[in-house]
Specification:
Oligomer: single chain
Number of domains: 1
Order of helices and strands: HHHH
Structural class: mainly alpha
Helix content: over 70%
CATH architecture: Up-down Bundle
Length: 105
């Protein structure tokens, strides 16, 4: 099972890393208050991606349910990041969309 899920696990890890980078970069922006929702969703998305990767790696029978939620959180994060013109937000949104699709398949 773990071998079958390796590509998805890697995508989840990549998405988590991109969300963490975006979160950190948002904290450095001039108007941090304007970035509050983006920061929160970056953190939520990184957390759910890490948890989903862990559950997939361990072969949890509940991982399909978590993948569905992860896809929804990734989409929410992407939608928020797409509202901002920062390069880190654009990269995060792109990765979140990719991860959301990967969780659906």
């Amino acid at each position: 099972m773990h071998e079958k899920n390796k590509p998805l696990i890697q995508t989840l890890k990549d998405c988590s890393a991109e969300c963490n980078h975006c979160y950190s970069a948002c904290l450095q922006e001039d108007d941090v208050k304007m970035m509050a929702k983006c920061i929160q969703l970056d953190r939520n998305c990184a957390d759910i991606c890490d948890m989903t990767a862990s559950w997939l790696a361990s072969g949890s029978e509940l991982s399909d349910k978590l993948k569905k939620l992860c896809s929804e959180v990734c989409n929410a994060c992407a939608e928020e990041c797409e509202k901002h013109s920062h390069e880190h937000c654009k990269r995060c949104a792109e990765m979140c969309r990719k991860c959301s699709e990967a969780c659906k398949s």
